[in-house]
Amino acid sequence: MGSQAIKGVDQTRAQWYWKSNSDPWSTNGNEEWTKYSDIESAIIEEAFNQKNKTKLAELENYSINLNDCIQISKSDPNEQGQIKRVLTSRNESPGLREERFFLPPALSKTFNDDNGLAANNFLSRWREDKELSDAEIVEHAANGIIIEGKQLDISSLSHFPDEEEVLLPPATIFEVLEVKKTTNKTHVYLKLRHPGYDGGYGDLDVDGL
């Protein structure tokens, strides 16, 4: 099965879809296609652009075989379905990102309506009630990201066990030296400066934030 393209005069970007009919191999009736999330689509596209002959992408619950244009369930290899690649205008990219961090309806509204005042009050009261140190607050926040990732079925994308957390001391000054972006990851190179190193400032380069 070949890829499908929507051509335009402006720049395009790739969006990946999976066939969501009850019988994904049926040729009867209308075809139903569902978009992969923005992150999943970027992972698939990165594998698609690799030059090696075996084009595979790994998602949370599926393996993507790009040579045959199918997705294979990790829990049941017999559960397979078709996928397709569509090129769309970059002007449509905001709509394509709607699933990226879609939250359950049970979550309350954001704190954006009052310039962050409600958020600041909420966090202040929460911190007083919990009586946590800065390090413990950071740990709670990191765990919350992992939990939310599990709710969104992208826990593997929100948990990076090979990366190390670094809690910067107060009064640390940092300068962004360089930013490098790949398909689904951003590397930020920082120079950290903190008073107290031999009476002056010490520099430390950090890669891969």
From TrEMBL:
Tell me the GO molecular function terms: NAD+-protein-arginine ADP-ribosyltransferase activity; nucleotidyltransferase activity; zinc ion binding
Question: Which reaction equation describes what this protein catalyses?
Answer: L-arginyl-[protein] + NAD(+) = N(omega)-(ADP-D-ribosyl)-L-arginyl-[protein] + nicotinamide + H(+)
Q: Where is the WWE domain?
A: 2-85
Keyword annotations for this protein, in alphabetical order, are: Glycosyltransferase, NAD, NADP, Nucleotidyltransferase, Transferase
Q: What family is it from?
A: Belongs to the Arg-specific ADP-ribosyltransferase family.
Q: Is Repeat one of the keywords UniProt gives this record?
A: no
- Enzyme nomenclature, EC number: 2.4.2.31
Task: Quote any Pfam family the record assigns.
Answer: ART
Does Transferase count among this protein's keywords? yes
Query: Can you name the source organism?
Result: Didymodactylos carnosus
What is the name listed in the Swiss-Prot or TrEMBL entry for this protein?
NAD(P)(+)--arginine ADP-ribosyltransferase
Q: Which domain of life is it from?
A: Eukaryota
